[in-house]
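Q: Here's a chain of 235 amino acids. Please give me its 3D structure as tokens.
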Amino acid sequence: MQTTRFYVYGYSLDGIMLYIGKGTKERYKDHLWQCYDKETYWSRALRKMLDKGIKLDSFIIQGNLTNEEALFLEEELIKKYGKRLDKSGTLYNMADGGSGPVGWKMNEEQRERCRQRMLGNNRALGLIHTEETKAKIANSIRGIVRSAETNKKKSLALSWQVEEQIQKCKDYVKDTWWGPHITITYDGETKRQSANATHRLFTVKLEDIIIKRTITDFRQGSCPIAFAKLKDKYK
């Protein structure tokens, strides 16, 4: 029996779909980190937008799917929105979707089974666009359409995610003696964690002591040796 732990997710800007993918757990957020290590069509586009402080919407379109259903829906939605590479739509996807990690692809019988199971899925295959959205999609094929207001929304690279990440860091260490007394900022510095992952380096300050930590370090909640000499003062 297949598990239903998969989902199909999307990225959009001003209501225009930019990317469709399939994953599990936190996969739909991974692009925000991995775009700085990869050189795919989507990664380059996402990186440029993040560096300009442009906030994209990332969301799960349909969850609680089997692997087959997720592959099927991914392929159908890519077909629905079309790809920029062949000028058929707005997506930065390079592949047509529907393939597993080693190139496995559903046969017609499997596709038909998925199609029948997912009939009536108004949240995904049955999406209906307004005339305004249709116009945006048509215009976006010639390039991303941004309003004057959107173009003004510039700040530090990845700034739209930074506040959320900083809050997570604070939550991880709130029960430590030093947690309530530190300030956490981010100035764009990153640290390579592995061949496929790069994490933000946050600047942590307590009085005149400054250290650099990734969110993984905060998750472990250990007391930095650098702060030890101030422990008696704050406990």
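Q: Can you summarize the key feature?
A: The mean pLDDT is 75.
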